[in-house]
Amino acid sequence: EDGIRDAQESRGLGDVYKRQVSTQSTGVIGGCMDSDSDDIPPELEDDAPVTLSSEVERWCSTPEFDEACSDSFTRAMMGQGNHGRHVSLDVVVQTVQGVHTLLPQEIKSLFPVPDQEFVSTSLQQVMPHLLREGMDETDVPISVQIVLLQLAAAVEKLVIEERVLLQ
Fold it and tell me: Coil, strand, or helix at residue 1?
């Protein structure tokens, strides 16, 4: 199995971690596990190859990401009115797309702009409860990280498949 599942099948963070380990990334998304964590297997700590996923993960742990996410979320919420703490999928999509425009150029040049279908599928695969139970503003940064890491994994998979086809 290549780690890809149907969108209807939920994937917990443990499965994401296993998949990231199999692609030699350095950990899991959004503060669940970072490069300083004791939970990272020793074989991945120091000499893990740099991957697109690891670069996205690194950037998502910077103040630049926090600022990009906050600014993009604020712009996406303009004109939405106050719906309590509930944040619509449209706002999350707009936030992700706003963050995409602020990615470092070396990452941004490799990514298409994620559309609503990609955002929704990414969230459904990794954290389906966000779509089922609804999101609030505190869920937005992790949602953006999920989408960016799913996008990085998809790009990495396409590159691997292309290499195999060319051989």
Answer: coil
Paired tokens of 22: 């199999």
Distance CA 68, CA 167 (A): 40
CA quadruple 99, 14, 37, 138: dihedral positive or negative? Answer: positive
Q: What is the pLDDT of residues 138-157, one digit of tens each?
A: 999 999 999 999 999 999 98
Under 8 Å between Cβ of 131 and 116: no
pTM exceeds 0.85 for this model: no
Task: List pLDDT tens digits, range 61-94.
Answer: 999 999 999 999 999 988 765 555 688 899 999 9
Number of other CB atoms surrounding residue 152 within 10 Å? 23
Query: In whole angstroms, what separates CA 59 from the centre of its chain?
Result: 11
Compute the distance between CA of residue 67 and CA of residue 113 in angstroms, rounded to an integer.
Answer: 19
